Amino acid sequence: MAGGSFVSTGEVKDYGGKVTVFVIMTCLVAATGGLIFGYDIGVSGGVTSMEPFLSKFFPSVEEKMKTAHENQYCKFNSQLLTSFTSSLYVAALVASFFASATTRALGRKVSMLLGGLVFLVGAILNGVAMNIEMIIIGRLLLGVGVGFANQSVPVYLSEMAPAKIRGALNMGFQLAITIGILVAQLVNYGTNKIKEGYGWRVSLALAAVPAFTMIVGSIFLPDTPNSLIERGHQEKAKTMLQKIRGTDDVDDEFQDLIDASEASKQIEHPWRNILEPKYRPQLIVSIAIPFFQQLTGINVIMFYAPVLFKTIGFGDDASLMSAVISGAVNVAATFVSILCVDKYGRRLLFLQGGAQMLICQILVGVVIGLQFGTTGVGSMSKGYANLVLILICFYVAAFAWSWGPLGWLVPSEIFPLEIRSAGQAINVSVNMLLTFIIAQIFLSMLCHMKFGLFFFFGGFVLIMTLFIFFFLPETKNVPIEEMNRVWKNHWFWGKYIPDEAVIGTHGQSNGKTVA
Fold first, then answer.
1. Where does the record place the Major facilitator superfamily (MFS) profile domain (predicted)?
2. Are 32 and 149 in contact (CB under 8 A)?
3. Could you give the C-alpha distances from 473 to 240, 252, 257, 372, in angstroms and in order?
4. In a domain, 70, yes or no
5. Is there a domain that residue 228 lies in?
6. What is the pTM of this model?
7. Residues 427, 408, 441, 363: what is their CA dihedral angle, to the nearest 10 degrees?
8. How far apart are CA 112 and CA 103, in angstroms?
9. Burial of 75 (0-12, 13-18, 19+ CB in 10 A)
10. From the CB of residue 352, how many other CB atoms can be counted at a distance below 10 Å?
């Protein structure tokens, strides 16, 4: 099996056209949908390390924190506390299936608008919460908003962007997530200094700002040509395609979109059809990538960064500032991915990022193991604590230019139109399910597995890196409606793709088949 057979893409069409200011601005506005997800990830970990919040809603955790000889691995172990963080992801999981139907029937921008509105209500409820029930209900509403946004935004970006810069524009979503995380961590650092003890309310209520941004943005966004054709507005679709491509000569691409839409209309039950063998490659990859993305352990770092840094010996302010530092690295490294993804491809970033994450996780586990042992009793010197922070920053950087943005980009660009909404719903739901599970059990796993937890995630990083090497073909610069050629030419997946799936509009094959 020759190495080249892993990445052979055959011949794909170049529709021409140019990159217009209009399409870049449109994609930047749409990408702000990632702000709500990012802000929530960043804010929840900081709030759960604030003593006024813990004393109001989780007094038993606060008592453990004050115990002098408490096991460092176990002092935050509380199922109720983790349910505050993880409840959002159950709601997002369920909402993504409703969002799939909405996105298909009413368009991508309507899903974004609905997501923003529901998230706004959840943010207000959390900000004024007087009891644990209000907090959890607010979190569930935030989850519905996240489910709709994560379903619609990546698909919107993939459909609007020209093939040659689709990776960079789609990664605007991940960039917005990382900016949301960083802003939340800065907000936490500031609100933690409010002496009256209501800082946590400010942190939670400010989630209304990214929600409002998404609402306003989605009102003014145009719909994608794919979505307009899907809903029977062909003239509008052609006009929009000419506008986003910056040329009147869009006949080839427009015809391919119509053909894809006609094929789509033959599919009455996308959820049943997605199980057919010809969609097997896309289905497996769209499940495996979000599954593995969460098992990198990244959300452990992002959700619980302040808690984790407190565990290894940082004080309140220092732990929140350490989280800000790792958040800033996250944003900066995402720019690396935006600059490289369409030049060097998806596979290279996946493979390099996986190797760097694996090394960092092993080293973090070794340092924490040497300092706390298996008992968890002890303290970490400032030098070792700073070493852990540096290793975590290298780990976060690797994730931010590989599995972070590519975990959303690749699943959103590989599905044919007829099952795209269903495919993206599966991607989001697997992501949210694993996020929920990891968020719910992490503090308990830290308590029981101790420093071995970092080796646990490291093992999965090794497996997922091998999966990418053998089973993910390169998709850079391939038009989204031409993606079947890539699968047909792959050494393993080719046998699942029927010849007619890569036949051109005039009955002639435009690509070559690998035996």
1. 26-476
2. no
3. 31, 25, 23, 43
4. yes
5. no
6. 0.79
7. 140
8. 9
9. buried
10. 16
Domain count for the chain: 1
Which tokens go with 340? 């490289």
DSSP designation for 252: H
Q: Is residue 12 part of a domain?
A: no
Q: How many residues does the chain have?
A: 515
Six-digit token string for 322:
């350490």
End-to-end CA distance of the chain: 12
CATH number of residue 329's parent domain: 1.20.1250.20
What is the residue range of 350's domain? 21-222+267-501
Asked if the structure places residue 238 within a domain, the reply is no
